[in-house]
Amino acid sequence: MTTATEVTRDKTAPTIDADDEQARMVAEHLLAAAPAGEETVCVSQATLAATTGLSPRTLRRVLDRLLEAGWITVTVAATPNMPATYDLSRLRELGIMPASQPAPAAGAPAGGVRVLSEAEARSPLGNVVPGERVMVEPGLLEAGPNIRRACGWMSASPRRSRRWEC
């Protein structure tokens, strides 16, 4: 007799080939999305598709293969307002490691935003990776339609009336 917590695996369950790079990549990204020390992860398929570079349909097929092989299980089914929660304990048993996160750039603070040097700000091509979050010293910005300026109520002295300035 099996208990509710005991998991039995069907001997005829499909297996994932060693050369199934898509399955391994999705498994690694699921592990990378899990909070440290957690056995479950709640992540949307859209997020997984974006991080793996797979189309949403291909991602669903890969997730189905992982589920059929018993590598992952769904602990909480997805709803229209909430993504599914996956149990990753079997992935850890199999020795699969999380996808490596890109190393933070030199000078990047803990938040992941890096301040560009003057040379990088003047010539960002080749110095900035697409999608990277960067900041530029305000003095290095040139006026243009794509530059946002801080606006607010300003007062030159306590006796003068306040006015809106950008």
Description:
It is built from five helices and seven strands, in the order αβααββαβαβββ. With 166 residues, it is of the alpha+beta class. The strands form three sheets. The chain has a three-stranded antiparallel beta sheet with strand order 1-3-2, with helices on one face. Strands 4-5 form a two-stranded parallel sheet. The chain has a two-stranded antiparallel sheet with strand order 6-7. Mean pLDDT is 76; it is low at 1-10 and 102-111. Pfam families: HTH_24. This is IclR helix-turn-helix domain-containing protein.
Brief synopsis:
The protein is an alpha+beta fold. It is 27% helix and 12% strand.
Sheet with most strands: strand arrangement = 1-3-2
The percentage of residues in β strands lies in: 5-15%
Unreliable spans are 1-10, 102-111
Q: How many domain units?
A: 2
**Secondary-structure content class:** alpha+beta
Protein name: IclR helix-turn-helix domain-containing protein
InterPro entries: WH-like_DNA-bd_sf, WH_DNA-bd_sf
Pfam families: HTH_24 (PF13412)
Organism: Actinomyces ruminis
